[in-house]
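hey
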């Protein structure tokens, strides 16, 4: 598959994927910004804003579960590259540095989530 077919462009407020949806791909930000958000009715809480070189959607590509948050473009002409499950498995098996990068990011995100949860529980 040509790499161009794996690249999508989004405008501000375009939804890349919604919380609860299924998906077996992760995304790498090539240009622009992506907000990872939790929606509660009309309320939107930005969990994190990701920029060039950062990735999102890795949990669904790893475990096949539904999306845990919504990804929304936060800048004009935001470009992302999709990495499907098969390509992800290939990269992890052939490029140990890629696997370590994913594990490092997951660890940091889990630690940040734990810190926020602890802070909220113990004001």
């Amino acid at each position: 598959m040509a790499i161009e077919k794996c690249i999508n462009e989004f405008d501000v407020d375009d939804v890349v994927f919604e919380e609860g949806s299924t998906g077996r791909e992760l995304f790498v930000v090539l240009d622009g910004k992506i907000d990872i958000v939790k929606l509660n009715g009309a309320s939107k809480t930005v969990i994190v804003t990701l920029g060039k070189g950062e990735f999102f959607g890795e949990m669904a590509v790893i475990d096949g579960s539904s999306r845990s948050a919504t990804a929304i473009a936060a800048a004009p002409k935001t470009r992302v590259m999709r990495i499907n499950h098969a390509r992800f498995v290939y990269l992890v098996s052939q490029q140990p540095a890629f696997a370590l990068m994913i594990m490092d990011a997951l660890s940091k995100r889990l630690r940040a989530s734990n810190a926020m949860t602890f802070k909220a529980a113990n004001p």
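Residues 11 and 76 are 5 Å apart (CA to CA). The mean pLDDT is 91.
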